Amino acid sequence: MEQALVDLLLATPTITDKVVDRLTPGVLTQGVRGSALVWNIISGERGYSHQGDDGLPRARVQIDAYGDTYLEAKALAEAVMALLSGFSGVVGAVRLTILEARETTAFEHNPGDTKHRRSMDFTIWSRAA
Q1: How many CB atoms lie within 10 A of CB 65?
Q2: Which residues contact 64 (CB under 8 A, 6 or more apart)?
Q3: How far is CA 23 from CA 12, 14, 37, 75, in A?
Q4: Rounded to two decimals, what is the model's pTM?
Q5: What is the pLDDT of residues 66-86, one digit of tens each?
Q6: Cα–Cα distance for residue pair 72/17, rounded to 1 Å
Q7: Which residue has the higher pLDDT, 97 or 32?
Q8: What is the dihedral of CA 33, 82, 63, 61, to 10 degrees?
Q9: How far apart are CA 102 and CA 89, in angstroms?
Q10: What is the mean pLDDT of residues 93-122?
Q11: If pLDDT is split at 50, 70 and 90, which confidence band does 26 have?
């Protein structure tokens, strides 16, 4: 699922125009110039029926949009939200379905940091296509 999500984001010009290839898991690399995206799997769960695993793992994924200015971070977050909110489709060999999309209303910028951040959470179902 993670690779399919990354591939989807990097195949979208409104996103790659801003981040090029600055899309990383975990934490923002120190000293990154320009806009960037960081993604983290926050939690995951499997669904079950009376017959066992339903084959539809769900994950809550947080994506943080960073920019040198608040407006850059906001524009990047809006591009990600426009792509992923309600997305359902096949990416590579994986079917992704975005069930929920949430964006924080506040922005974060700590004194001394060089980046502004907008955070988004997505609930994603995935399965082999």
Answers
A1: 29
A2: 28, 37, 38, 39, 117, 118, 119, 120
A3: 13, 14, 5, 16
A4: 0.87
A5: 999 889 999 999 999 999 999
A6: 12
A7: 97
A8: -160
A9: 20
A10: 83
A11: very high
Residue (of 92, 39, 87, 91) closest to 64 by Cα position? 39
Which residue type does 46 have? R
Which band of pLDDT confidence, cut at 50, 70 and 90, is reported for residue 29? confident
Q: What pLDDT score does 49 carry?
A: 78
3-state class (DSSP) for residue 103: strand
Taking the CA atoms of residue 65, residue 71, residue 72 and residue 77 in that order, the dihedral angle to the nearest 10 degrees is 30
CATH, domain 2-49+56-128, list 1.10.10.10, 3.30.2000.20, 3.40.910.10, 3.30.700.20: 3.30.2000.20
Tokens of 95: 């079917």
Phi, psi of 33 (to 5 degrees): -105, 140
Q: What residue ranges do the domains of the chain occupy?
A: 2-49+56-128
